[in-house]
Each structure stands twice: as structure tokens, then as C-alpha cells.
Amino acid sequence: MKRFYNLEVHYKGQNYFGWQKQKDFKTIQGTLETTLKDLVGSDSIRTMGSSRTDTGVHSLANVCFVQIPCEFTPQQLKEKLNQLLPDEIHIERCERTYSHFKVIYFAKSKQYIYLFKNLPEDIESNYFTNIPEKLNIEKMKEATKSFIGVHDFTNFSYKPSKNAEKVREIFKCEIVESQDYIKGEDREDCYALVIEGSGFLKQMVRIIMGTLFNIGHGKVEIEDIEVSYDSSVFHKTGFITPGAGLYLNHIDFIRDPFKGHKVQE
């Protein structure tokens, strides 16, 4: 017997080395798989996440495909996992699916949010980044427009694979003041970079955020962004900002992962 489910997984990533399971490192996927094995009493489980978030990054939207060798109703599986998982990981939704649901390839767009403050003091937080030096927020807002559209983001990614597709389309990119997307943990008065696209390369959002910080400090000009789209030229405009401020906020799918699926006996 094999049963298949899609889980919407929310997590606080500060104590984990990202989503993807790794030998000798605590990750979200690794913790979820260990919990599933303990729950079903078998190693015959399989998981696949729609987004491989990095170390320290949070999620309000990651969808995980799960295969297990026994039967639970979606509500039972959700409740039992939430009883067993650490407090930082929570299953928000659970529904049956079919064996070949592709959580990576069926994702048509993803939205990330990066939270930051600009206060003249040293602030440590697992949930936002503070930049103590004064930023030109209006110039940063203007610069966000340069990321919208179809571009080669080679220079906005970390060690991209030589054969990987580097072209992505950004549908939305803006900085919001006094954001209300994410509440609690002193986040209500943060600025938020809201960016939505067809997909993202490794650490792409964090490098875009680093570029905007550099523009806000006058270290980089808005015109430099256009120069960086020429992948034949090594031209880095930003640095990799801390993972603490980054949230996977929403994923749109071409097929609804929570539509439900009838069990075939």
C-alpha cells in the first residue's frame, strides 16, 4: 500500500540548515522525514519540497509531496505530525494527491518577502535584518522597477550551475513600508521587499536585496543593474544578505496541490 499527500509546511528556519536534507546537518526536510518514519514505523517514505530554502530562511508556503506506506485521513496525518514535529515546524494544510504530482514543476510562480529595518542601532533578530546606516529608501524603491521583466540573473546568483537555465521572469518587485504581511516578533514596522517571479536561482533574492542596500548607500547606481544582466561580464552589484529576513510567502501552482484525490483501492 502506498498513500500520497501534499503538505503545506510553515517553519521558522533559524535553527536549520535550510530545507533540503543533508548528512550530519539538521534540516527541515530531514526533520520531517525522521518524524514520518517514526510515525509510520517504516523507512519506506518519500518527500519532495517545492522550494529548497536556504539556511535560516522561513516559510509560510512551502508545499511538500509525501509518500507513506499506510493509510491516514488528511486530518489525521496533519494532527499527528503537528504533535510530533518541533515547535518551529507546523503543517498548515494536508490533502491527498496522486503518485506523480510534481511539486517543483507544477509551481508557476513564487513570492518571497525580505523584511528589514533601518534603525541607527545594533539589532539582532532571527526574523528581520537591521541596517544601521541610513538608507535612501526612495532610491531603493525606484531601483526595484529594474528587476521586473525577463532577465538573465547569472550575476544575481551564487555559483550557478553551468548548464542551469539562468533566465527568469520577475512579475512584481517593490518595497513596502510598515508591512503587514507578517506579524509578531517585532516585525510589524519593518520594510518589506516583495518579489514575485517564475522562479529563483540560488540566493537570488538575497543578492537582489543586497544590491538594493548598496543602492540605498550610494555604492551602486541603478544603471548598474542593467549592466549585470549581461552574463558574459562578471558584474556583481550586491552581497548575500542574511537568511533571517527572508520568507517564502506564497506559491501559485498550475494544478491545485490541495484539490484532493480519491483513493484507489
From TrEMBL:
Keywords: Isomerase, tRNA processing. The keyword ATP-binding does not apply. Pfam families: PseudoU_synth_1. Its EC number is 5.4.99.12. InterPro entries: PsdUridine_synth_cat_dom_sf, PsdUridine_synth_TruA, PsdUridine_synth_TruA_a/b_dom, PsdUridine_synth_TruA_C, TruA/RsuA/RluB/E/F_N. CDD domains: PseudoU_synth_EcTruA. Formation of pseudouridine at positions 38, 39 and 40 in the anticodon stem and loop of transfer RNAs. Belongs to the tRNA pseudouridine synthase TruA family. Homodimer. This is tRNA pseudouridine synthase A. The lineage of its organism: Bacteria, Pseudomonadati, Bdellovibrionota, Bacteriovoracia, Bacteriovoracales.
